[in-house]
Amino acid sequence: MDIRIERTTDARLLAQLNESVQKWHHENFPLVFKPYDFQEVEEALDKLIGLPNSFGFLAYLKDAPIGYLIG
């Protein structure tokens, strides 16, 4: 298996990968988590990874993004 990890500031791609996570959280904890809204998530992630001490990483299998980490 060839997994590649790269640092990213691509909030759009992070928001796309976040969709399944956010939907699961909302379905299982609707009183705590809002429904997924792509534009809202993209804007929030763009602000977050733009902070001085924040970062984002993407994991790729071959050339397909399969996961992410934000810290």
Low-confidence stretches: none
One letter per element, helices H and strands E, the order comes to EHHEE
Give the radius of gyration: 13 Å
Beta percentage is 25-35%
Number of strands: 3
- Give the mean pLDDT: 96
Distance between the termini: 25 Å
Strand order of the largest sheet: 1-2-3
Instruction: Return the structural class.
Output: alpha+beta
Helix content: 40-55%
Query: What is the chains' assembly state?
Result: single chain
Tally of DSSP helical segments: 2
Main sheet properties: 3 strands, antiparallel
Shape: globular
Strands, helices and their partners?
Blueprint: E1 3-7, H1 11-28, H2 38-49, E2 56-61, E3 64-70
Antiparallel strand pairs: 1-2, 2-3
What is the structure about, briefly put?
The chain is α+β, with helices and mostly antiparallel strands and 71 residues long. It has helices at 11-28, 38-49, and strands spanning 3-7, 56-61, 64-70. It has a three-stranded antiparallel β-sheet, covered by helices on one side.
